[in-house]
Amino acid sequence: MKKLILITGAGRGIGAATATLAARAGYDVAINFVHDEASASAVCAKVEALGAQAVLIQGDVSTAEGVQEIFAGVDASGIPLRAMVNNAGVVGQIMPFTEYTEERLRRTFDVNVLGAFLCAREAIKRMLAHGESGAIVNVSSAAARLGSPHEFVDYAASKGAIDTLTLGLAKEFGEAGIRVNAVRPGIIRTEIHAAAGDAGRIDRFAKMVPLQRAGEAEEAARTILWLLSDDASYVTGALLDVAGGR
Q1: What are phi and psi of 225, to 5 degrees?
Q2: Distances from the Cα of 104 to the Cαs of 87, 98, 200, in angstroms?
Q3: 182, 240 in Cβ contact below 8 A?
Q4: Does 196 have pLDDT greater than 70?
Q5: Average pLDDT, the chain
Q6: Is 155 a catalytic residue?
Q7: Rounded to 5 degrees, what angle do the CA atoms 126, 226, 185 make?
């Protein structure tokens, strides 16, 4: 039976790596993006080259309307939604906490927290309607326990909310056969560091990691796919660090 996975923010980084691995694992893949259609389309091409069906869906997770558009695309595919990865996220420029603006804070929490809550709600509704088990993986961050002082405390706090969301949903919907877990990546080689205004951050922080290197997007993606798989059938409510020991 065909099964669909929805990955939000799947055009780049961990989301794109997860889409490719999901296709290899036998999923058809719904690839969500907001602005960068070219990158998302390139991910679709990779998914289709692996023999899976790709569903390209534009939609902004930070609004209820955008989330409804995303799930309208999921429904239109006609494939039962069995898994979702709450991956979409933003980070502001590195700066002292006292310089944060209201606009920055609202954007961070609208995308990283409200978006994850709304997407999880819609995914669970569909999993319950299908009457079959399902799995959600939320992409949190090691920042949730490190706090990210002098850089992006708001981002760290938003990921702390994702950890709590994960625990609550795992307990509320475990009886229905829906597993909810989170991965907490550390220093991963993606575009997020440049987006925060410090492309050299990866190499500086890699020296603080016990494994003495940055992680790769596919390493985080492999952990996500394991949590979604039957190999993790007795794992729910887990907050799994993918941070090289940091």
Answers
A1: -65, -35
A2: 19, 12, 23
A3: yes
A4: no
A5: 95
A6: yes
A7: 95
Beta bridge partners, 83, equal: 5, 135
What the block records as the tokens of 29 is 């893949």
* CATH number for the domain formed by residue range(s) 4-242: 3.40.50.720
**pTM for the full predicted model:** 0.95
pLDDT band at 204 (very low <50, low <70, confident <90, very high): confident
Three-class SS string for the chain?
CCCEEEECCCCCHHHHHHHHHHHHCCCEEEEEECCCHHHHHHHHHHHHHCCCCEEEEECCCCCHHHHHHHHHHHHHHCCCEEEEEECCCCCCCCCCHHHCCHHHHHHHHHHHHHHHHHHHHHHHHHHHHHCCCEEEEEECCCHHHHCCCCCCHHHHHHHHHHHHHHHHHHHHHHHHCEEEEEEEECCECCCHHHHCCCCCHHHHHHCCCCCCCCECHHHHHHHHHHHHCHHHCCCCCCEEEECCCC
Show Cβ contacts of residue 20 under 8 Å, excluding neighbours closer than 6 positions. 43, 46, 47, 50, 221
Q: Which is it for the CA torsion 210, 215, 219, 220, positive or negative? A: positive
Measured distance CA(206)–CA(204) in Å, rounded = 6
Please give the single-letter amino acid code of residue 80: P
What's the rounded Cα separation, in Å, for the pair 19 and 29?
6
Structure tokens at 183: 């991965």
Q: What are the residue ranges spanned by the domains of the chain?
A: 4-242
Taken in order 171, 176, 177, 179, the sign of the CA dihedral is negative
